[in-house]
Amino acid sequence: MAQRTNDLGRAEACANIALAKYWGKSKKGDNLTAVPSLSMTLDSLRTRTEVKFETGLTEDLVVLNSQLVHGSETARVSALLDRFRNLADIDLKARVTSMNNFPTAAGLASSASGFAALAAASSQACGLELAAAELSSQARKSSASAGRSLFGGFVELLSETPQASPVAPANHFPLAMIVLIVRSSRKEASSSWGMQHTASTCPYYESWLHHAPEMFAQVRSAVLEKDFTKLAEAMEHSTRLMHATMMTSLPPILYFRGATVELMHEVAKRRAAGHPEAYTMDAGPNVKVLTPAQNLEAALAFYKSYPGVESIVTCRPGPGTAFLSHSSALETAQRENEVS
Ligand code: PMV
Known about the structure:
The structure is a single chain. A hairpin with a 7-residue loop joins strand 6 and strand 7 (about 165-170). About 50% of the residues are buried. The protein has ten helices and twelve strands. The strands form two sheets. Strands 1, 2, 3, 4, 5, 6, 7 and 12 form an eight-stranded mixed sheet that branches. By secondary structure, it is α+β, with helices and mostly antiparallel strands. The protein is globular. It has helices at about 70-90, 110-125, 130-140, 145-150, 190-200, 205-225, 230-245, 260-270, 295-305, 330-335, and strands at about 10-20, 35-55, 60-65, 65-70, 95-100, 155, 165-170, 175-180, 280, 285-290, 310-315, 320-325. It binds (3R)-3-hydroxy-3-methyl-5-(phosphonooxy)pentanoic acid (PMV).
């Protein structure tokens, strides 16, 4: 075992939103997904992470958004670090400092950008030179959606497949995504628990497994053909099929709030009236509206004052995970949070 390393790893990753959803794990285990998914990487939701293996640490220390975290959050980080320690034959604990550029309380899932940045920073801190596909596979074991954030633009993660792969670059299809935050503070049921619960109690779960690949195929060809109307219909259907399985679990998992449903009606009404807009929702109540970039200003003007919308984040197709050679923000955060 290597006794010490002075190497730092630093990386930045963007979040992603699935246009074709996955919900459910494969029976093969290893956090493989049961259905294929396709996402758009989002340029404005980013996580920066620094990993440093240090002599003298008796446990991994994880500082997330300037707060030392404990329990299950640290355990998930340690599980990823353990895999890299095994690969690199390193026996040291690590100090991990991670910052999101978006408020965690905004109810936006940060596990995708978080585990993608962590996988890249860990590999660099270990002195490993892994291809993006291998980093994707490692991130995917911690959070399946994180596997997609290694790549920019439009990205697919096929069912029972270890790593995600790029479908089209960020500049392929000029789209924008408006994240409408309708409820920021409530802690939602975690997606891992929700998927298990759905698989074991929803009477329609097998039907979802059957239909999801068709939705994925439609979303994929719509993206490649740059056909917004086809994409809108397939993306919304994928979301509704997924949420239908959640809602019909026992007890139900109901992520939607009133504003979520009002916005679904509004987007449908506006699309019928000629506004190219489509909705998608994940494991929470926030509504993400996808629109061609040239319609962004008009869409923003409408949704920004919509009743129930607390705040808005605007995103465009973003880049894949990148290593960072300098990271003053992280260094400042680390100094402010000296924990040992
Ligand atoms: O892989 P997780 O645990 O981040 O779950 C992601 C689940 C959804 O966001 C609802 C769908 C998806 O494909 O991203």
